[in-house]
Every structure is written in C-alpha cells, then in structure tokens.
Amino acid sequence: MANHKSAKKRSIQSKIKNSVNSKYLSKIRTNLNKFNDSIKSQNIGEVQNSLKEINSIMAKAVKKGILKKQYMSRKLSSLSNQIKKN
After folding, report:
1. At what angle do helices 69-85 and 44-64 cross, to 10 degrees?
2. Is-contact 35 51, C-beta < 8 A?
3. How far is CA 13 from CA 17, 18, 45, in A?
4. Residue 4 pLDDT class (50, 70, 90 cuts)
5. What is the 3 state secondary structure string of the chain?
C-alpha cells in the first residue's frame, strides 16, 4: 500500500489509465475478430466497413499513446493485403 500522498495519487492514476487502455485494446481485438469473420464470409461491404472502423479506433489509440504508430501502419497494411488476397 502506498504511504505517501503522491504514491497514492499515482496508484489511482495508474488504475484509471489501465482501465482506459484495456477498453481501447478490447475494442481493437473485437473489431479484428469481426474483420476476420467478414473475410471468411467473403462479404466485401462488411470487410470495408470493418477495416474503416479498425483504422479509426487504432488512430485514436495512437493519438492517446496506447499504440505505436508503426504498429498501426503495419497492422493496417497486413489487413489490406488480406483483402487483396481474397
């Protein structure tokens, strides 16, 4: 348990930050699963919408410092290549 006032505050801040970060990462994983399901079902319109949604959520996560920009670009590139394959 934290003994100093600043350590207590830091503990509270880290818990809040952890919950926000996990919420964004959960959204990303959910949308990636939707994307993979739409790729398997060969539904082009659904694939495009899910890719746009993934791009939006990842951009927000990069802006907030949850993800790195390079990870986002690499992931979007691989997803685009999956679309081109099918």
Report:
1. 170
2. yes
3. 6, 8, 41
4. very high
5. CCCCHHHHHHHHHHHHHHHHHHHHHHHHHHHHHHHHHHHHHCCHHHHHHHHHHHHHHHHHHHHHCCCCHHHHHHHHHHHHHHHHHC
CATH 1.10.10 assigned to domain 17-85? The reply is: no
For residues 43 and 41, what is the distance between their CA atoms, to the nearest angstrom? Answer: 6
pLDDT tens for each residue of 14-73: 999 999 999 999 999 999 999 999 999 988 889 999 999 999 999 999 999 999 999 999
**Distance between CA 65 and CA 72 in Å, rounded?**
12
Of 8, 10, 32, which Cα lies nearest the Cα of 40?
32
As a whole number of angstroms, the distance between CA 20 and CA 18 comes to: 5
